[in-house]
Amino acid sequence: MMTLELLAVINIGNVVGAGVTLLVIGLVFVLILSIAYAKLRVEQDPTVEAVLAVLPGANCGGCGLAGCSAYAEAVVADHGLMGKCGPGGEALVKEIAAILGIEAAASAPVRAVVHCGAKSSDKINSTRYGGAMTCGEGQMVAGVMGCPYGCMGFGDCAAACEFDAIEMVDGLATVNYDKCVGCGACVQACPRQLITLERFSEDPLLIISCSSRDKVKEVRSYCKVGCVGCGLCAKLAPNHFQMEQNLAVIDYEKYGRSEEFDKAVEKCPRACMLFVGKKEESLKLEA
């Protein structure tokens, strides 16, 4: 019969043996993973790493890509994308250009534009709700406001903006262009797709502050400042304005101030053409 001492020795031996076995297995796995890493590792371009290091790290997607890493790779491959990072601005363009060893070309900033100009007093047949509501919820409520296209004023865009660049002023989303970096968060937050990102080739920039596609009688029934699709702007300045489904639109590829351009703005019967930007107050035209 085995003594207790012998059993204890055997048990200790088993434990040690098991431990050694696990250690060996672990070392084998480490060796395998190391070999696999060495074989499969993709060498990162040091230029991409340098560009990534100067990016703001917001991963906002405003550049149209998945995040800062994707943008760094893209801008190294295509230098024309240098001005796509809204949060970085012009200073970032210069930094990236220095890394790439090229001259920084002037790049117009991309900023958010709200295609609605109706404040609370301009909205006809709007229902006032006492409780809290989001724009996403309001979009599913029949009759939340007369206009089925305009800003509901519940502030989803303002809540989504990390740069505090949008505030609700008298029931209307209003962009602070001193703070807007063109990240696009507000664009994603608006369920009515009222907000777009536009390249400010000039500051201020003219916008159509309406998104209604309805005919004149319907527009007049729910808004005092909505576009009625009269087409006067397209007649006066056909190189700058077109009509699409009862709504005036601006061709920003041909954007530029001219005599006919200014005349079209001045003659708008609904004053739904507005200049926005950092110099908005001084150059806004009144109809």
How many extended strands?
Answer: 8
CATH architecture of the largest domain: 2-Layer Sandwich
Strand content: 5-15%
What is the count of distinct domains?
2
CATH domain class name of the largest domain: Alpha Beta
Write up this protein.
With 287 residues, the protein is α+β, with helices and mostly antiparallel strands. The chain folds into two domains: 46-100, 3-methyladenine DNA Glycosylase II, Chain A, domain 3 (Orthogonal Bundle); 110-283, Alpha-Beta Plaits, CATH 3.30.70.20. The chain is built from eleven helices and eight strands. It has helices at residues 4-40, 46-54, 68-77, 89-100, 135-138, 156-160, 185-189, 216-222, 232-236, 259-267, 280-283, and strands at 110-114, 166-169, 172-175, 195-199, 205-208, 241-244, 247-250, 273-276. A two-stranded antiparallel ribbon has the order 1-4. A two-stranded antiparallel sheet has the order 2-3. β6 (241-244) and β7 (247-250) form a beta hairpin. It is elongated. Mean pLDDT is 84; it is low at 281-287.
Please describe the topology of this protein:
Blueprint: H1 4-40, H2 46-54, H3 68-77, H4 89-100, E1 110-114, H5 135-138, H6 156-160, E2 166-169, E3 172-175, H7 185-189, E4 195-199, E5 205-208, H8 216-222, H9 232-236, E6 241-244, E7 247-250, H10 259-267, E8 273-276, H11 280-283
Helix pairs in contact: 2-3, 2-4
